[in-house]
Structures are given as structure tokens and as C-alpha cells.
Write a structure and sequence with these properties.
19% of the residues lie in helices and 37% in strands. The protein is an alpha+beta fold. Strands 1, 2, 3, 4, 5, 6, 7, 8, 9 and 10 form a 10-stranded mixed sheet that branches. The chain is elongated and about 90 Å long.
């Protein structure tokens, strides 16, 4: 088969006009030739990319990239295939891409190589405003007058204040501050902070030499050192633990202090041994781990109580998971709803640290398979999740296999919005999208994004309620409702079901085709709970309170 003939067959498939004979020819060619499969993948990727650039229906079911099998089934495109091919070549020239439009490159880059190229000139870089990162906290109680922060948060310019506890703060220049409460400080830049009250230990490596802590009417300038400060409204004292500092401004302008030396910058002198109990980085780590262990034990007690809830149809407390390929269902519904890990699922640290576990699904083949038979009147999904990135258009939390009548899809979109949908009518053509085979469903999205890149690596509790009785879908983040949307008549159904399903991915294994949408969740999931009930806002808040760890 010539390359031209191959392109003609792919074009016919893209346009939805391929005959049974042509479909068989194309399938045979794809089975026989890796080069043909690469050509097919390249053209279908350009199809998907250019449909999006042309303003395609974002609510329509996304096209699947099928390397073989069922090629006569195809979603509608918004250009003819021949024009798409011409437009792809033109776009390639305009973007000064020095390769042919149909060349795919490396096979493992199977998640939108072409999208990246085609949109390069349209994308802008994501930015985050901030000067430092909150690395760890222990026993923290944030002031009512200040914003509260979580471990991993980027701290912007402004006031950081807490009533008690200790915080470890890494400035982007390389300096690390261990701050004990009650404390109040103002972040001014990557290289400067004003200490208004509290005790701190500053560790400044060579890369951050010149870091400044402003206190009273003086500036403490690092010259390669570790120093400590004790600041109250009536006094301020600096002590050099190791190295050297320079004082600028005030009555001590130009004075240098070296290891073991101290100086009062305001008020009366303090005792030389007043810094002997100042927290170190190791102290913060040990205290934090101890608090997490206490919280972990509290959570285990609440988890044991939750298992008795008769509304709970499936419950996977992954935090307790050992190194096994099976996922135990802890609900009273029993072993029929146990799960199985498939592929390279990563067993990692859970939200309680080394004492707990989580499942990571960063590889396309990774997933946990379950089966939850029966019909249900209402559904509530809840889990703890750590999002590392949202690299796919749709990122799976929990997905019914075939997306048939009454089956749910619970996902997070690449724009950070939480999504829950239920199939209403799986008959091709019943939907309201532009594709002729679209099926009737509706995606209920959170009103605003629940996640952005600054939250990467943080644990959060997500929950969604699908309630046909009150005709509302509600989304919750960390125990608080973030949006609700009415279920209107065209999208109403009383019968809900799940059947075969997957955690962290969507493989559709019942189909003959090996193709599947790439929706693996890049992050970690823990404590997935599914209820045959619409949990109240108070109940979801309690799930969050029972399950949270210090710093999350």
C-alpha cells in the first residue's frame, strides 16, 4: 500500500465516510506496519489539535486515538480530512517546524506532541507571585488577622502571622527561617523580611549571602552565617550562632558580629542562654511527625466508625494499604467490591507521612479496577488527593467503564475544575453536541478551579454529591461547598449504577479496540469513599476534619 493510499484511507476515516472494505484495508495495514501506525497517530493528533484550535465543542466526548479496530466509528470533525491535512502542513510551515507534518517522532510521547507544537505560539507561561515557600509547620495556629497557609504554599509579599507553633520557611534566594510563635513578619522580597515579633533562627548558605532581616531600626545583613533573633514590642536581640553578620542603620550601623556574639537592637539586654532552646530544622521535623502520628491514630478510629455506615457502598482506606496488588473494600458491602491494582501503580507516602500510604497513577497504564453492581438512588464520592499536575484534558478520579446509562464519571479538568457527570441516554445521536453520535449527558463542573500549579503536591479533600431527589449536584473542597448546579429535566435520571469501574484512570477494557483515552491521574489518591446517599454539607465537613493531617 502506497503512502498516498494510506493517507486517503485515514482521511476517509476522519471524515466518517470510510466503507467496510476500506476499514478492513486500513486495519490490516495498521496491524502490519509500525510506520503506518505512526502516520495514523500523527494525523489523528492533528485532527484533535486543530478541532480544538477551531473552537470545537469542549463538552463533546473527546475523540479517541484508535490504532486499530472499530475504525468505522468516528466522532465528527469540523473540517474535511483533506483540508485538515493541508491546514496541518500550512500550520507547520507557519510555526517554522523543521519536520514534515506527518512525522510523529518518539512513540512514547503519546499525549499530544502535536498539540504542544501547534499551540506553542499561543501559550503564555504560568506565573506565581511569591518570595518563599512554607515547607513545614508544627502545632501551628494562624492568627485571625492573617491568612492561613498550608505546607507547600508559596508565600507572597505581605504579613504572615500565627499565634503559636513553629514554621519552617524557605526563601527562594536559599535562606531558611525557623520561626516560633507567637510571631508576625512581613515578607518584602526574595532577599528581605521584616521581623515584627517572634523568635527565629536563620540559616543562610553561601548562595543566599546578603539576605536581610529588618528589625527595629536596624538591618541584620548575612555574611555567611546562622543567627537568631528574639523580637517583642519592647525589645529586639540578635545572636550569631555561627559565622558573621553586619548591622546597618540605627545606633549600631556598621558593626560586625561573629560566632557567639550578640547585640541588643532595642530595649534591655537578654540572657545569653535565651536562645539555647530555639527550634532547629530537625526539631520541626520530629514535632511534625509526632503530631501526624497522633492525627493518624485519630483518623483510624474515625475510619473504623465510618465502616459501619450502611449508606457506604464502597470504601478504600488506602492509607492502611500494605504492599499488595489487591485493594480491600472496608465497607460492609464486602469482598465483592474489592479492587485490584493494574500496571505501574506507585505505592507512595500518604497524607500522614511515612506511617500511611497512597496510590499514584502517573503512568498511562496504571489504574485500580473495582466492580460495584446494583442500582442506587443517590451518589456521593469523596477522597483525599494530591495533584502533582493536570497534564491531560481530563484527569480521572473514579470512572465507570463504559459510561452507559446511569454511570458516573468523576474527574478533574486541565483547567483545575472538578467534574461529575452521569450518562442519561447512551444511544448514539441522543446528545446535544455537534457530533452525530453524541450521547445525552451533562458535565457538572465546579464554578471555579479547585487547583492551580501553586498547590502541586498538597493534599486536599474533594467530594461531589449527585442527588436526583433534590435535583442538585454539589462540589466540596476541604469540607467547604464550592458550587452547586440544578439537574434539569433533560438530564434527569432516577436510576444510578456503577458496575465495572476504575480509580485513577479510564481504560474501557470491555471494548475490542486496544485504544483508550489517556486520563491517568498524575498525583495520588487516598481514602476513596462512595455512598448511596447525598451526604449533607455537615457530614462532608466532618469527613474532612476526621481525615486531615497537620499541615494539610
Amino acid at each position: 500500500m502506497t503512502e498516498m493510499k494510506l493517507h486517503e484511507l485515514i482521511s476517509a476515516w476522519l471524515d466518517g465516510r470510510i466503507t467496510e472494505t476500506e476499514s478492513e484495508q486500513l486495519q490490516n495495514r495498521l496491524r502490519e506496519s509500525r510506520e503506518a501506525r505512526e502516520q495514523f497517530f500523527a494525523l489523528t493528533s492533528f485532527d484533535s489539535s486543530l478541532r480544538q484550535l477551531a473552537g470545537g465543542d469542549l463538552d463533546a466526548t473527546p475523540p479517541e486515538l484508535l490504532p486499530a479496530g472499530n475504525l468505522h466509528v468516528r466522532h465528527e470533525t469540523f473540517f474535511s480530512a483533506s483540508n485538515l491535512i493541508k491546514l496541518a502542513a500550512a500550520a507547520t510551515l507557519l510555526l517554522v517546524v523543521g519536520r514534515q507534518a506527518y512525522q510523529i517522532g518518539k512513540r512514547d510521547a503519546d499525549t499530544d506532541n502535536v498539540n504542544v507544537v501547534a499551540q506553542q505560539s499561543l501559550d503564555t507561561e504560568t506565573t506565581i507571585a511569591g518570595y518563599a515557600t512554607l515547607r513545614r509547620v508544627a502545632g501551628i495556629q494562624w492568627s485571625d488577622a492573617s491568612a492561613s497557609w498550608r505546607e507547600g504554599d508559596v508565600l507572597p509579599a505581605g504579613i504572615v502571622e500565627f499565634e503559636k507553633g513553629v514554621a519552617e520557611i524557605d526563601f527562594f534566594c536559599g535562606a531558611t527561617l525557623i520561626v516560633e510563635g507567637p510571631a508576625k513578619m512581613e515578607l518584602e522580597s526574595d532577599w528581605s523580611v521584616r521581623m515584627l515579633s517572634g523568635r527565629l533562627r536563620a540559616n543562610v548558605p553561601p548562595a543566599a549571602r546578603g539576605f536581610v532581616v529588618k528589625v527595629a531600626d536596624s538591618e541584620v545583613v548575612d555574611l555567611g552565617t546562622e543567627f537568631a533573633l528574639d523580637v517583642t514590642p519592647s525589645k529586639a536581640w540578635v545572636h550569631v550562632v555561627d559565622g558573621e553578620i553586619e548591622l546597618k542603620g540605627g545606633q549600631h550601623d556598621g558593626q560586625h558580629l561573629k560566632t557567639g556574639q550578640g547585640q541588643s537592637l532595642k530595649g534591655a539586654d537578654v540572657k545569653e542562654d535565651s536562645f539555647s532552646d530555639l527550634s532547629t530544622i530537625g526539631d520541626v521535623q520530629r514535632r511534625r511527625d509526632s503530631e501526624r502520628l497522633v492525627q493518624f491514630n485519630k483518623w483510624k478510629a474515625s475510619s473504623n466508625a465510618l465502616r459501619a455506615d450502611k449508606r457506604l457502598i464502597a470504601y478504600y482506606p488506602i492509607a492502611l494499604q500494605q504492599s499488595s496488588r489487591f485493594v480491600a473494600n472496608a465497607a460492609a458491602s464486602g469482598v465483592e467490591r474489592d479492587g485490584k491494582l493494574i500496571g505501574p501503580v506507585e505505592m507512595g507516602l500518604g497524607r500522614f507521612g511515612a506511617e500511611s500510604s497512597s496510590f499514584g497513577f502517573s503512568r498511562p497504564g496504571s489504574r485500580a479496577r473495582v466492580r460495584i453492581d446494583g442500582e442506587f438512588e443517590q451518589l456521593t464520592f469523596a477522597c483525599w488527593t494530591r495533584i502533582d499536575s493536570l497534564e491531560h484534558k481530563y484527569n480521572a478520579l473514579f470512572m465507570g467503564d463504559g459510561y452507559e446509562n446511569g454511570e458516573p464519571h468523576w474527574q478533574i479538568r486541565d483547567d483545575g475544575r472538578l467534574m461529575l457527570s452521569v450518562m442519561i441516554d447512551e444511544t448514539p445521536g441522543s446528545g446535544r453536541g455537534k457530533a452525530p453520535d453524541a450521547r445525552l449527558h451533562h458535565i457538572y463542573r465546579s464554578a471555579k478551579p479547585i487547583w492551580n500549579v501553586s498547590m502541586s503536591g498538597q493534599w486536599m479533600h474533594v467530594a461531589s454529591v449527585y442527588d436526583p431527589k433534590t435535583r442538585f449536584v454539589r462540589h466540596f473542597i476541604n469540607g467547604s461547598e464550592v458550587s452547586s448546579e440544578a439537574i434539569i429535566d433533560p438530564f434527569f435520571t432516577e436510576k444510578l449504577r456503577i458496575g465495572p469501574a476504575e480509580i485513577g484512570n479510564w481504560g474501557q477494557p470491555f471494548r475490542k479496540s486496544p485504544g483508550f483515552a489517556v486520563r491517568n491521574f498524575n498525583g495520588a489518591i487516598d481514602e476513596l469513599a462512595i455512598f448511596d446517599a447525598a451526604l449533607s454539607a455537615e457530614e462532608i465537613r466532618q469527613l474532612y476534619e476526621d481525615g486531615k493531617s497537620f499541615g494539610n
